[in-house]
Amino acid sequence: MNKKIFRTIWLVALSVFLASLAFIMTVSYSYLSSEQLKQLRIEARLAAQGVERLGKDYFTNLDTKDYRITWISESGEVLFDDDVNASNMQNHKERPEIQQAQKSGFGQAMRHSFTLDDQQSYVALRLADKSIIRMSTTQLSFLTLLLRWIQPILFVVIIGVALSFVLARQLSKKIMQPLNELDFSRPERYFGNENYKEVEPLLMHIAQQQQQLKANQEQIEKTALIRQEFTANASHELKTPLHVISGYAELLKNKMVPDENITLFADKICAEATRMSKLAEDIINLSKLDSGGAELVHERCDLYQICKNVRDSLEPTATKAQVSLYVHGDHTFVSGSPGLLHSIVYNLCDNAIKYNRPGGSVHLYLDQQDDATSGTLTTLRVHDTGIGIPPQDIDRIFERFYRVDKSRSKQAGGTGLGLSIVKHAVQLHNGTIQVQSFNGAGAGSGQAEGTTFTVTFPAL
């Protein structure tokens, strides 16, 4: 960056210097051209006075090495020319400077000379006898001036280039010094500092990026820890039913089970196998949601119909647990995956039944409401009259393998992954999930025990 700033400053300084030099040369050329014409007019007046006083004798022994003098009659005939034989010259009546002098007494022109074949400056004066005295000299050209001054110009250019190089180098170092001294690990230190006012937006952006990187790093570490815990918990959860199955199978193999208990042991093996299968299925589903492997195919889904289907599926389980299951509301549509939406409702209702009490109930409420920032939202509330969740456990219920009541969860066949699957599926649908619960310790006076999960989705 220092080199780029140096090159920029040097090129700008050099450009200004060369432009200034060109301007000075142009002004000098204009001034010298003006002075040349001024001197030419003076010489013409002196010559006119000499001719009027002495006539043709004035031209005898006349030394005009810097100027050319021509005497022209009123008719345009050349009477005398100190550079060319007058008898060989054309009539000059049509020359611009001659015509001006005949009309106003004075004429001047800068044009190509046909006689000398070069650019000439002319000044013409009309005499008393109406003849014309004309003085001319080779016109000063810009190239001539440049060649005349080439040595001093080259000297000035060399000095200017060297000086601009040194100044640009020093200035670029001075500009870069505050930037080189910046501690980018702590950019917030320089906020409000006048020396860094121009780069404050960059420093703020760097600070934001550092905060984002720090947050990302923390999230990566947190995710790695969760995965590590998940692997350990999954291994433990899979070992438990395997040990139970292995133990029961060993007893059956060694004929250590009475005949009347064989069916009971077989039922226990089947139950543990079913639990292990459900656990493996939940682990696979959660892994897909984590990795993005569960592709969300957007369809127009009737959430009310999904709730009714879940109610019908869980009706036998609810009846066995002596829990009533109700669906309230009307047909409400959302965009999403029918399978994942069914999984959300199913897991919430399944938990509401498992952690309920005999004679309890589970209510599913569906409605729509307008939100000032998010537009129209579809709300699903799953309320149960169960045992509730202790306040200290509410923040952890969405963690994998976390169980509020471990003994009851295993008795009910839970895997500890249902609410994690629900949370991921809700997030994939751009929704939110909240929980409010009261148990024996947390319920206030007149407040019934129970849990309510509130899920919101963008409505169609």
From TrEMBL:
<dbReference type="GO" id="GO:0000155">
    <property type="term" value="F:phosphorelay sensor kinase activity"/>
</dbReference>
<dbReference type="GO" id="GO:0005886">
    <property type="term" value="C:plasma membrane"/>
</dbReference>
<keyword id="KW-0418">Kinase</keyword>
<keyword id="KW-0902">Two-component regulatory system</keyword>
<dbReference type="InterPro" id="IPR036890">
    <property type="entry name" value="HATPase_C_sf"/>
</dbReference>
<feature type="domain" description="Histidine kinase">
    <location>
        <begin position="233"/>
        <end position="460"/>
    </location>
</feature>
<dbReference type="Pfam" id="PF00512">
    <property type="entry name" value="HisKA"/>
</dbReference>
<dbReference type="InterPro" id="IPR003661">
    <property type="entry name" value="HisK_dim/P_dom"/>
</dbReference>
<keyword id="KW-0808">Transferase</keyword>
<dbReference type="InterPro" id="IPR036097">
    <property type="entry name" value="HisK_dim/P_sf"/>
</dbReference>
<protein>
    <recommendedName>
        <fullName>histidine kinase</fullName>
        <ecNumber>2.7.13.3</ecNumber>
    </recommendedName>
</protein>
<feature type="transmembrane region" description="Helical">
    <location>
        <begin position="149"/>
        <end position="168"/>
    </location>
</feature>
<dbReference type="Pfam" id="PF02518">
    <property type="entry name" value="HATPase_c"/>
</dbReference>
<dbReference type="InterPro" id="IPR003594">
    <property type="entry name" value="HATPase_dom"/>
</dbReference>
<dbReference type="InterPro" id="IPR005467">
    <property type="entry name" value="His_kinase_dom"/>
</dbReference>
<dbReference type="InterPro" id="IPR050736">
    <property type="entry name" value="Sensor_HK_Regulatory"/>
</dbReference>
<keyword id="KW-0597">Phosphoprotein</keyword>
<keyword id="KW-0472">Membrane</keyword>
<keyword id="KW-1133">Transmembrane helix</keyword>
<dbReference type="GO" id="GO:0005509">
    <property type="term" value="F:calcium ion binding"/>
</dbReference>
<feature type="transmembrane region" description="Helical">
    <location>
        <begin position="9"/>
        <end position="32"/>
    </location>
</feature>
<keyword id="KW-0812">Transmembrane</keyword>
<dbReference type="InterPro" id="IPR004358">
    <property type="entry name" value="Sig_transdc_His_kin-like_C"/>
</dbReference>
